[in-house]
Amino acid sequence: MPRQINPTLRDQLIRGNLLPLLTHIKSDPELRLEVRTGGEAFVYYRKGKALEIGSLKVDRKYGNVPPCELAVTNPSQYFDQIKLSIDSWVKKKRDRAEFDSQQKIAASNQSVDDKYLIIDMEYQFEQHQIDVEARESGAGFDLLGVDRKSGRVVLFELKRGLNAWRNGTSNIEKHISDYETFMQGNNSRLFRENLNTDVRNILEDKIALGLIDNYEIADLPEIIDPEFVVLYHHKEYSERRVVLKDLNDRYKLIFISPKEGYKLK
After folding, report:
1. Quick check: 235 and 259 in contact, CB under 8 A?
2. Domain range holding 141?
3. CB 215 within 8 A of CB 20
4. Among the three residues 91, 123, 152, which one is the final residue of a domain in this structure?
5. How far is the C-alpha of 6 from the C-alpha of 34, rounded, in Å?
6. Of the candidates 198, 205, 204, 206, the residue with the CA atom closest to the CA atom of residue 217
7. Is the per-residue pLDDT at 78 higher than 80?
8. Contact 245, 47 (CB under 8 A)
9. What is the pLDDT of residue 131?
10. The last residue of a domain, from among 60, 91, 122
11. Is 6 helix (H, G, I), strand (E, B) or coil?
């Protein structure tokens, strides 16, 4: 199913009983609304799912969570409470730093002056039209965006630290292989069509909700060859040499560090 907010839910957010919720989300830079399949929209905080808006649900794994109805009646109080729950949960997880970086990158690349407009986090390629045994594994990318100047759609993969870059089942070579499979493999035509649909739906929904300014969907061409950009979040400047050698100019590489900020250039 495509990523698109149910029209009724979208109307509730724009002019109905969920308008105070949307207004609060827009006022809080730590929150991010994302368009999801099944007509849903989720709110994220530190890449934790703070609220499933349509179904008014939150994951109980975060511990002491507030009643979701509070998000409708008093959004400020709800998010104050759920943030504390997610913060406590994150402290117990040692592998969340990359997720924090993803949301910071997404939040920092929304201005009309930015090279890239980030429109989604944890993008998953739709595969329901493909037989189960023929589906591709590793169907997700960290960030989905648009190059504002060219209109080209961009899939971003973020790696933080050399261990994540080179080792394990999610190393950079695996992500490059996944990208090439989706864009050049047996189902590449379907993946491109679904990506094109998702990008347009996400943009339409976010523009209607007032989450994206100064962008016209007419600026987006039909997707022919989405770009793949590798983001590397480094702790020490010396790591850059290793990463440059590994990637060997195969794909565009952008370095990120907290000192330099999270703008993508």
Report:
1. no
2. 97-256
3. no
4. 91
5. 13
6. 204
7. yes
8. no
9. 65
10. 91
11. coil
